[in-house]
């Protein structure tokens, strides 16, 4: 994922705490901030206001998005922010050991339950465009990010792939 973000050297990539925070380290050095849960979304909105011409990509994991990023997306839509939010969806709470969350379709007791639809949720929050793509389709992901950065919309890109550290069900 972060080797793709390296292709946008002029962009500021705001993140929050999660396993993807490792993207701030070498060899990638592709994540420029890590403040708190939800900060990948809210800092992106603030940066777009402070630096209107600078491309900004907010990065957040699916579990963190569900727990503390939804309100940031609602705020961004309400305040007419234009920019890109990248939701890294591995359908688990990987940062703390692989617990289930409302987007996984399972309870904490591993019982099937209603699965939160992130695409519908993002549209309901006010995103103008929501794309779903595999983060392993590098060229397509790079082209998609470039396209969305150049558009004047509030866009969510959901990069969807299972966590490699959690065995498949």
Helix content: 25-40%
Strand content: 15-25%
> Taking all residues together, what is the mean pLDDT?
89
Shape: globular
Order of strands side by side in the largest beta sheet? Answer: 2-1-3-4-6-5
| Classification by helices and strands | alpha/beta
Report the uncertain regions. none
- Distance from N terminus to C terminus (CA atoms, Å) equals 23 Å
Annotation, overall tally of beta strands: 6
H/E order of the elements? HEEHEHEHEHE
Largest sheet: 6 strands, parallel
Supply the number of helical segments.
5
CATH superfamily membership: Thiamin diphosphate (ThDP)-binding fold, Pyr/PP domains
Number of domains: 1
CATH topology: Rossmann fold
CATH architecture: 3-Layer(aba) Sandwich
Integer-rounded radius of gyration: 15 Å
Name of the CATH class: Alpha Beta
Describe what this molecule looks like in 3D.
With 169 residues, this protein is an alpha/beta fold. The protein has a single domain, classed as Rossmann fold (3-Layer(aba) Sandwich). Helices cover 32% and strands 18% of the residues. The protein contains five helices and six strands. Strands 2-1-3-4-6-5 form a six-stranded parallel sheet, sandwiched between helices. Helix 3 (62-78) links the parallel strand 3 (56-61) and strand 4. Helix 2 (39-50) runs parallel beside helix 3 (62-78). It starts with a helix and ends in a 9-residue tail after the last strand.
């Amino acid at each position: 994922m972060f080797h793709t973000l390296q292709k946008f050297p002029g962009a500021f990539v705001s993140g929050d705490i999660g396993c993807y925070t490792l993207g701030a380290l070498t060899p990638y050095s592709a994540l420029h901030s890590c403040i708190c849960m939800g900060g990948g979304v809210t800092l992106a909105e603030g940066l777009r206001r402070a630096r209107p011409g600078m491309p900004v990509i907010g990065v957040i994991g699916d579990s963190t998005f569900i727990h503390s990023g939804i309100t940031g997306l609602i705020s961004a839509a309400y305040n007419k922010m234009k920019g890109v939010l990248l939701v890294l969806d591995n359908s688990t709470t990987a940062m703390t050991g692989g617990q289930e969350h409302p987007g996984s379709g399972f309870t904490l007791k591993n019982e099937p339950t209603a699965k939160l639809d992130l695409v519908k949720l993002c549209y309901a929050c006010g995103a103008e465009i929501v794309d779903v793509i595999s983060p392993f389709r590098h060229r397509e992901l790079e082209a998609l990010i470039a396209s969305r950065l150049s558009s004047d919309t509030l866009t969510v890109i959901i990069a969807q792939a299972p966590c490699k550290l959690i065995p498949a069900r």
